Structure formats: structure tokens, C-alpha cells
Amino acid sequence: MQLITSSSQFDSELAKAGKKLVVVDFFAVWCGPCKMLEGPLHELSRKYGKGAIFLQVDVDQSSDLAGRMGVRAMPTIQFFKNSSKVGEVVGPDVGAIESLIKQHYVELDAFSGSGKRLGEVSAANTNPVPHDVSSSNRQFNEKLEENDCLIQIRLMNGENVRELFKADDTIQKVYEFVASKVGKSTNTFRLSTSFPRKMYEGAELQKTLKEENLTPRGQLIAMAK
């Protein structure tokens, strides 16, 4: 999987892809779910590499590109055909990722230049569709109930913790949860999003997770004052 380091490189790869599906993994090195997804994504890239291109973007190194593409939580997997976005999966949901790949994937015939979608069988190739790899990561795919919100918080010591909240819970509730985890008073740290960077202090703490687009999964950073 190729690492993209600039917007110009990203645009160039989309343009060069032609008819191929482009799958882009927006990740962060400190993101626990991103690490969980790494192995299954590499397996998918080997499985579908004939008709799809797999790219990676480190959101901390390429924050401008991540912001431009509307990425607000990691991992975010975006799908492109003919330089246009055709789908997105937020979170380490391997089943949903593979489903979108199958939906848009076209396996190109190296001799004729023509293509066929997964499930179509030609006289020259009667091999079955490869097995589904989603089971290899099933334990990491939290199935959320309606109005549930799974928040991952990066603590000051670099540890990542996850806690289930409700969409109408406030940032203040997350703030108090962090304080209880680290054993600090609530005036020694503050919460922020990773990018675009937004600090939550004062009245901002009364906003709900839904209002801040942190549902159904979101990520926050606890920073020492």
C-alpha cells in the first residue's frame, strides 16, 4: 500500500488510476482501531490488487489533505472511481469495506482491456470469487445501537481508551470521564479534535457529540494545559 504525502500526489494517483477503484486509508499512528485494521487491509489489497489501488494517508503528516477530504475520525476509508468519491467507511469495519470494494471493483482483463465485476464469470476464467476475509477482524467491529456513540480518547500519556456514550451526551461528560480515568482535576487538561483542530473549553463543553459530528464514532485528544 502506497503512502501518500501530499495533495498533489493524491490527485495524481487518482488521475492515473483510470477505471480502477482507488481505496484510501486515512489513519493515525496513535490510533488503536487503525492498527487493528492494518492487517486485514493489507490482505484486501493482495486479494483485490488486480483491479483496485490501495493508498494510505497519515492524517498527522497530511492534515491539509485529510481536512480537504472531510476526514474527522480514524480510521476512515474512502473509495474513488474516475477521481470521484463513491463511498466511505468510518471505523474498522472490514465487512463494510469489502462490501464496497465488491460493489465498485472491476477486474481488468490484461489481454482485451475489458473488465468484469465480481461475480461475473467469463469463459477464460471460472475461478470463484475469493473468500470473505471480514471474519478475521470481526471482534473489533463494535455493533452500535441507535443513538450510541463510541468515543476514542488519546490520553496525555499516549494511551488510547474507548468509552460508549449517547449521541446527546455533552463534551462535558467525556471530559469528566477522562478526569476519572487519569485521576486529575478537570482544570488541568482540555479536550480537542485532531483535525481540523478544535479546542473544547467553557461553553463549548456543553455541545453534544451529535452537534460536533462525533457520532456514531469519534476521536478526541486530551491535552495538558
From TrEMBL:
Q: Where is the Thioredoxin domain?
A: 1-127
> Sorted alphabetically, which SMART domains does this protein's record hold?
UBX
Q: Does the keyword Cell division apply?
A: no
The record's listing under Pfam families reads: Thioredoxin, UBX
Which keywords, in A-to-Z order, does the entry hold?
Disulfide bond
Domain named UBX is located at: 144-222
Q: Which PANTHER family does the record match to this protein?
A: THIOREDOXIN-LIKE PROTEIN 1
Q: What is this protein called?
A: Thioredoxin-domain-containing protein
Name the source organism. Answer: Basidiobolus meristosporus CBS 931.73
Taxonomy of the source species: Eukaryota, Fungi, Fungi incertae sedis, Zoopagomycota, Entomophthoromycotina
